[in-house]
Queue: 2 jobs
Job 1
Amino acid sequence: MKEQIRENKTPLNDSLKDQGKGKSIAAPPFQLMSSDAPIQGKLSNDTLVVRGGMSSPENLITNQANDDRGHISANSANGANLQTLATTPEPFKNGSLTVSDVGTIRGIKNDQGKPMDVLEDPTKNNPVHASIEPNTKSLSPDEAGKLSKAFVSVPNEWKKK
């Protein structure tokens, strides 16, 4: 996955329209299979999940504690590639990004055995905002460690200057 993300060598789908707002979102750096076609309003398992900076267990615990709903902030959208997710609504200022995919995160179970999820959560200023939902009020160190290991660190080529 890391090489695919970094080198973007795989075929691209046609670009998608951003919910009728006229903005074009580039397609992911992989070809969606018909069985992977996303359900309206639900993220496909192959959809990238991007966070600015490091997704260390400590950062994930802090980010969740700062959210009233107990979610963890990320960027993710069906059909969006790494560049789109790293630069919408503006480029991340971090020198590195951490990247995973929805299916990998859904494969992680919290301490109660419930799977984690990634939800579309667009905001007024960020149409690709998503929330990682750990399905627990606060991450334990073990849960945060599992989630942290789901992310791969890559250089941020689009760093905000």
Job 2
Amino acid sequence: MNSKIFFSAVRLIEEYFFVPVMSFIFPSECPVCMEPLGEYHSRGICLDCWISIKVIREPVCMKCGIPMKSPPDFMPAEDSESGEAAWCEELEKVHNKTANRICGRCQTKRYHFDRALSFGEYSGTLREIIRLYKFGKKRYLSVPLAELLLKALKMEMKRRESSHFDLIIAVPLHRKRERARGFNQSFLIARHIGKKSGVDVGKQVIRRIKDSIPQSELPADKREKNVIGVFETKTLWKMRRNSRKKISGKRILLIDDIFTTGATISECSRVLKRAGAKEVFVLTIAHTPWNSNDTGSGILAH
């Protein structure tokens, strides 16, 4: 057996089996709150921490999925210039899940995806869990994080006219960054969602061709330009007759970890749409609050 394959297999067994099992048998402390683990915990993180995650609830923007907690945050998605009467009418529908709501940013900014949904707010416990997952290299956290997204997706499917997706795609990392980290955090989550939902996961459908500056290191107004032209579909780098069939006419579920400005997922969606995707629905673990979107301060932000 190739030594590289052998050591990769050993590492996966350690991260996905040995560490979780040992954490269950010999619990010590929760890496998030640093409190002793009680009898009930999931993947080494205490139940209190999982419960403390700020889940995003209605009302949300029907485009980017950001919470709209107060009247000034939004205006009607349609007939937004029809005056105060229409705006007040929309306010009365704010808790109606079928109300068509678009936030101020989405009214002025063009996103190439059709809809985006996030499970929780990128703060506190959820932010720390994502940090541990990505930079602490705790790959086994992909499973409970994927389960959170499955819950959010299940609720969303009840509101959709179309109740299925044809293909799941994770936002790709550049090969240098993926090699340095050891894994693509979005792909591991996408793979678990694919197994549970029975939907195919496309790993080689789209790739990142430019090793651009990490979005987290840039202010919001620089991020959109930073990701232009960084993605490419397989139809462009390998001209095969059946390549386009993997995307053309398909409803795509695009997975990423965090929605901050939406620049990365919008550019990825643009490339998928150009390759013939019928619909791109974005699903992320977390969405940064408004006061973080414009500063570029989120250390894991996209």
